[in-house]
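Slack export, channel: ligand-projects

TW: morning all. Re-posting the request from yesterday since it got buried. We need the structure predicted with the small molecule present, not the apo form. The ligand is magnesium ion; the SMILES is in the block with the sequence. No rush, but it would help planning for next week.
GE: picking it up
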Amino acid sequence: MKDYKILFTGSVCSGKTTAIRSLSDIETLDTDAQASDVTVRRKKNTTIAMDYGVLDLTKEARVHLYGTPGQERFRFMWEMLACEFAHDAIGMVLMVDNTRKDPFRDIRFYAKEFSDYLQKRRLIIAVTHADVEANPDYQSYLKAIKNLGIMTTVMFIDARDPRAVLGIVEELISAVERDINWDQVCERLLDNNGFSLDFYKPLYEETLLDAAMNKRGVLGAIHLGDQQEVLCSNIDDKSTKSLMCNLDRLSSAISDKASFLGAVNNIVIAGANVDTLSVFNDQNQSLCLRSDKDISLPVLKQQASDLLQWSIENDYLA
Ligand SMILES: Nc1nc2c(ncn2[C@@H]2O[C@H](COP(=O)(O)OP(=O)(O)OP(=O)(O)O)[C@@H](O)[C@H]2O)c(=O)[nH]1
Ligand SMILES: [Mg+2]
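GE: finished. pasting the full token output, ligand included:
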């Protein structure tokens, strides 16, 4: 028996668990639990450890399908999957949710996160939710990955559709396994796993501030608008509040006055015995966080970036 492996990764709600369910001939192992933070804005469940499924290709060949959790706080599982369970995978599928504010940022993030892993194996970018948000389109993705210098194939899929997800497997496996009847595999999957579109229902329930407070280590937050006005805050201490608003102004001033540095998207003040104060800018808004000194800066940055990616305009004005 020939055993192949494929690793699926990508942001929360990009469809990793769904894709593996669409493909698997066995009851998938998934470790979804009720989401307790910002992801409730999109869906109720999130993977907390891993997904696993198996797809039979012929009597002699099968594919083991592994999926990572999307949430950054389960990042330790990414390494465990890349270094242990799926260390010998033939390829990695990066699922990208086209409804995210900046899907290219997700590509940059995951390509960097898995850069060592990708040195020895193929990457496929699978764009989902294009039925909900058509832009960026295929051509824009090709341009973006060219600019990023990433070697990859881009496929637009719906993770709920076994035919579409099987296309990714075919793209990865057909070069090494030539005797597979893909049509037959596809028919079997449609018979067994079906294809139902559970309609996308956005659950915009939480404010950015509430979501921030649910993040690990966050003690207080301020949401600023495009004129640096306070949209919402739960930091009462006047001097801390004013310092954080000034950090936001400072980051804009540095971007304007020292353009050789490029855009300054965040400023962090950290010390051994004090809370960390940080500001993160994103297009027309900023998020200031007071957080526990023990939270590492990469974790803080990823949390803030995820929060801003989900936020919708006029959260507090509606
Ligand atoms: N409209 C639409 N919905 C999709 C598409 N692909 C997947 N979905 C839905 O999007 C949601 C994705 O959820 P999951 O599969 O749990 O996402 P995930 O990537 O495993 O998320 P985490 O485990 O939280 O990281 C499900 O409700 C799917 O039915 C698509 O192309 N279009
Ligand atoms: Mg999942």
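GE: first-pass observations. The chain has ten helices and twelve strands. The pocket of guanosine-5'-triphosphate (ligand 1) is lined by residues 10, 12-18, 39, 43, 46-47, 69-70, 128-129, 131-132, 158-160, 198, 200 (CB under 6 Å).
TW: perfect, thank you
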